[in-house]
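The data layer described in this paper is built around a simple, fixed record for each protein. Because each token names a local backbone shape, the row as a whole describes the fold. We quote a single record here, exactly as it is kept in our systems:

***
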Amino acid sequence: MKCIQLVMGPAGSGKSTYCASLQRHAATYGRTVHVANLDPALGPGESPPYEPIFDVRDLISTDDVAAELELGPNGSLIYCMEYLAGRSDTWLREELLDNTGDDDYILIDCPGQIELYTHVPVMKEVAETITRWGGCHVAGVFVLDATFLADASKFISGTLLALSVMVNMEIPCVNVLTKCDMVGEEAVDQMLDVHGRGARDLLEADRAEKAEADVGPAPPPSRRARRLGRMTEAICGIVDDYTMVSYVPLDITNEESMDVLLNVVDNMLQYGDDLEHVEKREVEDDDDGIPS
């Protein structure tokens, strides 16, 4: 079975760096991991930090669309992805299936416009098409910049964004915090509930910290502020009580961190299951002398 990661996340969250780093790390174990670029917004002079096995810009690019149709950056990107979705069974199938091996492991570097995953069903259609072909295990990897950890409200917003993508894509997903080397291990551990702190606790701690920083008596909150506060607490409660979103921290400078993430995604993709079955059968044949 072909194993495919759809690498998703906001612009600037480190999707391309994730793909390149995981490819290099897998190579140290003798594993071949291919990377493909599905982001048509890369400029003609821009090159991703990896050598793609195929590039959607060979089919269509936002620069060409913007020049021909006079659309803005967002409109051009949506047009490009809808154009791709309409040709998934032709161009994408040829590039992804016909030009690669049956057991290849492929990372697909997806665009960073979050509307493509939450508002416009383009990426969901692409994932459904790949799954429909058969012969592929597909999983989503949603990457979020760990600098979101600097503020509890940003972390909660990022968590809701990850949840929205998981619900809309309807494929197995793992959420990854990238750039952890820039934040520090202590901050990562604190936000990831290593010490038993959930989203509600983080929100209360953030409010207490802001209250201590205020000088003098604070004015009473407005009715709207109180209602929004209760809504935020309710959302945090749902996330905590049902453990709906969890994260795998990633430090690309740490080999152990890379190993942990690769194992998590491999298990989700069932990578190696067919190989283990074949090896087990070969051992049984050698022991009995008769195929089992």
Remarks:
- The longest strand covers residues 136-145.
- DSSP finds twelve helices and six strands in the chain.
- Residues 277-283 have pLDDT under 50 and may be disordered.
